């Protein structure tokens, strides 16, 4: 469902930039669908980028997608294979256990006698600096 074309011979660079000519072109999707795409590469596109694009297009490995990401009109052209969720790793288990331990229940507050609270509130928490006199 994709193709790549190469044009030989001399090309006008300005015509390439305006989209009238191109050295390489790639396109994909089914005719008549809005999900089709087209890409062009000029003579100045590094060859390794063109090679990576061609390799990705020719790779038969399925591309993982959520079923909701595939338009309904394209489902007939796709092979949908349900994948089970991954099993939790030991780190996932430790994190979940730690989270449950932190939120297991209300924590006991330390009891502070009322007399101590009154004494703490009546004195300043730090010594105030003495004002200096200017002459």
Account of the 3D structure:
- The structure is a single chain.
- This protein has 135 residues and is α+β, with helices and mostly antiparallel strands.
- Helices cover 30% and strands 11% of the residues.
- It has 4 helices and 3 strands.
- It has helices at 13-18, 47-58, 90-102, 114-122; strands spanning 2-6, 24-28, 37-41.
- A 3-stranded antiparallel beta sheet has the order 1-2-3, covered by helices on one side.
- A hairpin with an 8-residue loop joins strand 2 (24-28) and strand 3 (37-41).
- The longest helix is centred in the last third of the chain and has 13 residues, at 90-102.
- The model has no long low-confidence stretch (mean pLDDT 75).
What percent strand?
Answer: 5-15%
Can you count the beta strands?
Answer: 3
Shape: elongated
N- and C-termini, Cα separation? 89 Å
Biggest sheet: strands side by side, in what order? 1-2-3
Number of helices: 4
Low-confidence stretches: none
Coarse structural class: alpha+beta
């Amino acid at each position: 469902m994709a193709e790549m074309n190469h044009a030989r011979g001399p090309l006008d660079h300005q015509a390439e930039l305006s989209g009238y000519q191109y050295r390489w072109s790639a396109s994909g999707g089914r005719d008549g669908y809005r999900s089709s795409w087209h890409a062009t590469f000029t003579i100045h596109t590094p060859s390794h980028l063109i090679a990576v694009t061609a390799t990705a297009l020719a790779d038969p490995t399925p591309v993982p997608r959520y079923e909701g990401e595939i338009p309904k009109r394209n489902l007939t052209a796709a092979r949908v294979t349900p994948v089970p969720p991954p099993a939790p790793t030991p780190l996932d288990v430790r994190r979940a256990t730690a989270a449950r331990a932190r939120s297991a229940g209300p924590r006991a507050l330390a009891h502070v006698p009322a007399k101590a609270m009154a004494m703490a509130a009546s004195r300043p928490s730090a010594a105030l600096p003495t004002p200096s006199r200017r002459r």
